[in-house]
Amino acid sequence: MNIVEQKNEQKSKEEIIAQLSKLSLLEISETQHDSLMNDLASILKYVQRLQKIDTEGVIPTHHGTIEEMVIRPDAIQRSSHAKALISNVPEQNEGQIKVKGVFGNGA
Question: What are phi and psi of 96, to 5 degrees?
């Protein structure tokens, strides 16, 4: 029994795949199920290995480098490209780009 199966004994493979499909907004075909479950098992196994690493005394970091972040001043600037951008989009409403919804019914 692999780690995915151990962690999800109460869930079937189909339930796990359905949940992942829903959360990722991806359509997962039947032929991809076994491969996906194997990939998940490998990922979870690697995470278990990482959890065993002794990090006592290691200072937490939020970034991989120690360089100082340079931030430009926050200033409103007019863009001369806005009208050209809006003229090239398939749908717009009062100068705003209209995009397909990703949550709920897609409206």
Answer: -110, 140
Q: Give the CA distances from residue 5 to residues 1, 35, 42, in Å, rounded to whole numbers and listed in that order.
A: 6, 14, 12
Residues of the domain holding 39: 3-51
What is the pTM (predicted TM-score) of this model? Answer: 0.45
Residue 95 located in a structural domain:
no
In whole angstroms, give the CA distance from residue 52 to residue 48.
7
pLDDT digits (tens, 9 = 90+) for 53-68: 999 998 887 777 777 7
* CB-based contact 102:25 (threshold 8 Å): yes
Q: Is residue 78 part of a domain?
A: no
Can you tell me whether residue 2 is helix, strand or coil? coil
Position 35 in a domain? yes
For residue 105, being part of any structural domain is answered with: no
Which stretches does DSSP call E strand in 1-107? 92-93, 96-97
Over 90: is that where the pLDDT of 47 sits?
Answer: yes
